[in-house]
Design goal:
By secondary structure, the protein is mainly alpha-helical. Helix 3 packs parallel to helix 5, helix 4 runs parallel beside helix 6 and helix 7 packs across helix 10. The longest helix is centred in the middle third of the chain and has 12 residues. It is flat.
Length: 180
């Protein structure tokens, strides 16, 4: 359902507020839906997951590396990897796999980016190559941008309506593909 003008969202809001207790509704959206979110939250009927929620914190990243590598890298190196991967679990896993191949973890961390072989292979095979043709073209054409918004995407190739950006490692891989 598109959150547009009109009465459709008002009908949906009434339905959401009167759901039977055994029914749970999941809504995935880049924008807040036109629902009485405050009231639903106050009643304990709303759980929100924002972009930062699934990210690993610095402490969680440290614990992750301790478990995967038996000993965590230095706090500075963990912080660098957490920032470069934006706390993305798959990115941290790729870094840990690559670190197992290196004796000098600090040196590796300083050069870890989307050009890393593990990151390139994973993102190329599991993400980029599986995109439908129109999304594949969109990703390649917009990878040169640090952030995206509707008017800028319109200027480059087509339509959008909000600011976006690519996850750092993903953007590095796609820009490498674009250069090829």
């Amino acid at each position: 359902m598109a959150w547009g003008a009109g009465g459709d969202h008002q009908i949906f809001a009434v339905l959401v507020e009167h759901l039977p207790p055994q029914l749970q509704l999941v809504i995935a959206s880049r924008v807040d839906p036109p629902l009485p979110l405050g009231r639903l939250c106050a009643r304990g009927q709303l759980t929100e997951l924002r972009a930062v929620d699934p990210r690993f914190t610095l402490e969680e990243a440290t614990t992750f590396f301790e478990r995967v590598l038996a000993v965590a890298p230095s706090p500075e190196d963990v912080k660098t990897l957490e920032v470069r991967t934006e706390g993305w679990a798959a990115g941290l896993q790729l870094a840990a796999l690559a670190m197992q191949q290196h004796d000098d973890w600090h040196d590796f961390v300083q050069t870890f980016a989307g050009s890393n072989r593990f990151g390139v292979d994973y993102l190329a095979e599991e993400v980029i190559e599986r995109l439908p043709a129109h999304l594949h073209a969109f990703v390649l054409q917009t990878a040169i941008l640090d952030q995206l918004c509707g008017p800028l995407c319109d200027y480059l190739l087509g339509a959008e309506r909000r600011w976006y950006r690519y996850q750092h490692l993903f953007g590095d891989v796609v820009r490498a593909r674009l250069r090829q």
